[in-house]
Amino acid sequence: MAAEATTRMRCVTLHSIKPATFQILLRFMYTDQLPRDEELEQSSSPATIEEVFQNLLAAADMFQLERLKLVYAQKLWERVSPENVATVLCCAETHRCPELKNRCLEFFVVEKNFKVAVLTEGYSRSPG
């Protein structure tokens, strides 16, 4: 019965991943290539490039693509600022990126970064 249902299924719906994100994952899996950041920025409206990187990190985690996770964890780190460090920290924690998490914590504890970060929306939405 289960085998019969499987053979009849023509599509799989992934509710937690955007089609554009999945397309990038497929491209990476089959060609080992990633779009340039400029391409992502142009195609990501209205999302910010950081949101695109977070979505790709989450998808890479979901599909256990460790090398892709490392790529987007590094890209997120390169764009960390006092305004987004809390959001990036939550992303790192959620998607099991210990190095990114530790770097964010080190960044966060610098007094001038902390003073800005605690006033951001990302910080106020962070789990306590």
From TrEMBL:
A Pfam family the protein falls into: BTB
Pathway per the UniProt entry: Protein modification; protein ubiquitination
Domain BPM/SPOP BACK: 84-124
Name of this protein: BTB domain-containing protein
Signal peptide (from-to): none
GO BP, sorted A to Z: protein ubiquitination
Organism annotation: Digitaria exilis
Organism taxonomic ancestry: Eukaryota, Viridiplantae, Streptophyta, Embryophyta, Tracheophyta
Top-rank taxon, per record: Eukaryota
BTB domain residues: 10-76
Record family assignment: Belongs to the Tdpoz family.
